[in-house]
Amino acid sequence: MKLHVTFYGGLKQDVGAKTQTLDLDGDSLTVQELGDWLAARYPALGERLPTVAFVVGDEIVDPGYRLRDGDRAALLPPVSGG
Questions:
Q1: What residues does 6 pair with on adjacent strands?
Q2: What SS3 state is found at 33?
Q3: For the chain, domain boundaries
Q4: Which of 27, 32, 7 is nearest to 17 (CA)?
Q5: What's the N-to-C CA distance of the chain in angstroms?
Q6: Strand order in the sheet with 72-76
Q7: Residue 26: what pLDDT?
Q8: pLDDT, tens digit, for every residue of 2-25?
């Protein structure tokens, strides 16, 4: 299964790239499982994941959302402004 993942803000420094294409085993996995997979490979990213929003297409998705082959996901760090 291939996933295209984009990392925004400081998250791209945590993984060393703005985008990655991941080749993963299986036909699908949940957003939570993707987060666990990323945290195991990028410990600095893993520390931030509890506050990160996962987006698939144009929608923010829940941890139980099931990703499929070819999906495009993005990780968004929290933002603040004034």
A1: 19, 74
A2: helix
A3: 2-76
A4: 7
A5: 41
A6: 19-23, 2-7, 72-76, 53-56, 59-61
A7: 87
A8: 999 999 999 999 999 999 999 998
- Give, as one character, the DSSP assignment of residue 49: G
Place of tokens 């929003």: 53
Residue 48: closest CA among 10, 5, 19: 10
Which helix (H) or strand (E) covers residue 68, if one does?
strand 66-68
Three-class secondary structure of residue 79 per DSSP: coil
* CATH classification for the domain delimited by 2-76, as one of 1.20.1740.10, 3.40.50.2300, 3.10.20.30, 3.90.1580.10: 3.10.20.30
